[in-house]
Design brief:
This protein has three domains: 80 residues; 191 residues, no CATH class; 168 residues, TPP-binding domain (Rossmann fold, 3-Layer(aba) Sandwich). 59% of the residues lie in helices and 7% in strands. It contains 17 helices and six strands. Strands 3-2-1-4-5-6 form a six-stranded parallel sheet. About 2% of the residues have low confidence.
Amino acid sequence: MNTVLSLVYLLATGTFIAGLKMLGHPETAKRGNLIAALGMGMAIAGTLLLHTLEVPVFVYALIVTAIVLGGIIGWLIAVKVEMTKMPELVSLFNGFGGASAALIGLVAYGNTATDTSTAIMATIIAGVIIGSTTFSGSFVAWAKLNGSMRSTISLPKYNLINNLVALGILLFGTFLVWTGTDNLLYLYLLALAALVYGVLFVIPIGGADMPVVISLLNSLTGIAAAITGILYDNMVMLVGGILVGSAGLILTFAMCKAMNRSLSNVIFGGFGEAVSSERGAKVAGHIKKTSPSDTAVLMNYADNVIIVPGYGLAVAQAQHVIHEMETLLTDRGVNVRYAIHPVAGRMPGHMNVLLAESNVDYDKLIEMDDINPQFVHADVVLVVGANDVVNPAAHNDPSSPIYGMPILEVENAKHIVVNKRSMKPGYAGIENELFYHQKTAMLFGDAKAALTDLVSELKNM
């Protein structure tokens, strides 16, 4: 590798690290994403223009065509994707990243000029296994999030089956490394087995565990990219993959902590199993309904209002109207904040991104640990489309499948208004104690329609 290309890679690596650091805060996230993308563009251009290999013009034409087509498709998807579809898009990106790593391993394995030392063989095999598993697993996650597949599919003895398949893949991979065979059919069989395992791995997982699965698959994609970097002795791929892999793992464990569960329990426990609806104590009490006009009066004369957004807000695409309501109240001297639960929505940070799209002030987005002590001082809490993350059963009912999960303690507020389409349970499949609380009033209806009526009532006051 020549000196100039090494410097380009070093600079690109610096942009990756700087961009990742900026992603830690909503105010700098967009700029960080652009900086990291610029670094990736530099790395690609440097690889194409500064390498010392002899590459036929035809191959260059194929590479440029792939870059142009991929760029156009990616741009169109990014422009047209709705905020409610962001989790599915992330799953697709994870899948394609894994597929790339698997294909690179297959090509390298079939290249007789490739070094066949034990280390290189182990790297190829690992890349094919992880890449194939991530590819199929990510597409199953996409189907679940997209509604094309049931959230949870219970397989008989799935833990035993999955473990046996995983053990078989590891043993077969070890055999290929040990023998150093160059039979490409064996690697195709290994890739097929890994594809099957990816499906088996994700199918039993559902419910509120999906954000954890997305983070884990993202981490595996990064690891697969790092393995590819090792295979081709490419430092920028290695560092980029390590950054994605480590960041994904950190986020995965952060999500597990937010649900008070271990990663092994997520993978083997089946939080979203269909039987979960049969668990937990039966909730007793009566539902009290309210109207947009009554809610407007309640909020207009409040001093402190806390809004709890959930996936229902994203589905209704009501982020702009809720910001309008917040602005109206703020102009009238009401202190309005948003309570953000780490696993609200269908991917980590979903609510932060959604509200940032409507230009909500970043300082008003308060994380769970910081907002929970403030609920006791709130005159009104408005819950929009959130369910399990505000369910007091997490504290009160040891038989509940969400018992022990940290929640937003909205029940401590003076008045609670919950906007939902119906009394349908959330991901956990259980009834929500909060809906029957004596301080709670239910504002039924689509979030966008209900909040629009609420804004109209506020404007008329």
